[in-house]
Design a protein that fits this description.
- 76% of the residues lie in helices and 0% in strands.
- The radius of gyration is 18 Å and the shape is elongated.
- The protein has helices at 4-18, 32-37, 41-62, 72-100, 106-124, 126-133, 138-163, 168-192.
- The protein is an all-alpha fold and 198 residues long.
- It has one domain.
- It has eight helices and no strands.
């Protein structure tokens, strides 16, 4: 598993890429091993995910009858949802890489999108953290979540635009594939697993 020192190097590369500097790719491990190791970002994101799960649990219990229980199975379902929402967009991008002609950039797309999820996951967990500390702040945290969602789109688009050598149309398509399916799958699975307040 990559250690913090290694990850800090990747984060520097990501900052350069988001800033529009293609030399940021030199700070990433784009080898086959590097591609697979980039999925370790999921493990580094678990604390942020846990905050989001706690926030969702609070929202769920607030909107359910008194006495409703949420045990370990509730958290396990949220973990499954997050994993599927992480992996599915990348699988879709990998499947479409050759037909759409960006297979040469596939390693950079996967590695950069995996590692950019690390800082983004902690930022987007902030509304859940606020909700846990300040119950009844749903209006404020809802606005905060919307602002962070816009920021996620912007950061990923800038990242993908640099990775694909300023191909704006391709970068837009990749951004949509990375973000929208994750939200759609998340909402669908929350309903399927019975995690939406009734």
């Amino acid at each position: 598993m990559p250690q913090f020192e290694e990850i800090s190097i990747y984060l520097k590369g990501l900052w350069l890429l988001v800033s529009g500097k293609p030399e940021g790719l030199q700070w990433l491990d784009l080898s086959v091993t590097g591609v697979w190791r980039s999925f370790a970002a999921i493990l580094w994101c678990l604390p942020a995910m846990a905050v989001s799960w706690a926030g969702w649990r609070l929202f769920y219990l607030t909107n359910m009858p008194p006495g409703t229980e949420t045990g370990i199975l509730f958290i396990a379902k949220l973990l499954v949802i997050d994993l599927v929402a992480w992996i599915f967009p990348l699988a879709l991008i990998a499947i479409l890489a050759k037909p759409l002609g960006y297979d040469g950039d596939l390693a950079a797309i996967i590695v950069s999108s995996n590692w950019i999820s690390l800082p983004l996951s902690y930022v987007t967990a902030a509304p859940a953290a606020v909700r846990l500390v300040l119950p009844g702040s749903e209006g404020f945290t809802g606005l905060l979540s919307l602002m962070f969602l816009i920021m996620v789109f912007a950061v990923i688009f800038r990242l993908m635009k640099t990775v694909t050598n300023n191909q704006t149309l391709l970068a837009s398509a990749l951004t949509l594939m990375l973000v929208l399916p994750a939200f759609m799958i998340g909402n669908r699975l929350q309903t399927y697993f019975g995690l939406m307040p009734g």
